[in-house]
């Protein structure tokens, strides 16, 4: 029999959340605070979960980055979103570098593919249309060089 949500400890709530997907420590802390648990109890539970390997910011970052890569997002947006979720900047960069190695990520190719899916293969007709495409790619999280190269590559065919 499952306890009523109001009777669950911070640890039980956290495990219930982690059973569905990975969470970063900060995100999990926020969820547990919203459930009305005391901060001291939450901190003890989070520390124990991390010690037992049940919660890991590294694992969360890796899972998060893989999901964003599958959506066609760029590295700038990925790192920014991890930062918003409370993941340490150095840890986020390490996880991104590992993903790039494991998946042989080519950000330039991904930016070109995103551009082609959205706008087709034709070159922008004017500066306004070029700027629109640049904003699209920047909004997806690609950096200046990746955006510039994706647009330049359209003219290579």
From TrEMBL:
Residue intervals of the RecX first three-helical domain: 11-47
Compartments (UniProt record): Cytoplasm
Domain RecX second three-helical: start-end pairs: 56-96
Annotated ranges, domain RecX third three-helical: 108-151
Primary site of residence: cytoplasm
Keyword Cytoplasm found: yes
Keyword terms, alphabetized: Cytoplasm
Role according to the record: Modulates RecA activity.
Family statement drawn from the similarity comment of this UniProt entry: Belongs to the RecX family.
Protein known as: Regulatory protein RecX
Organism: Halomonas litopenaei
GN (gene name): recX
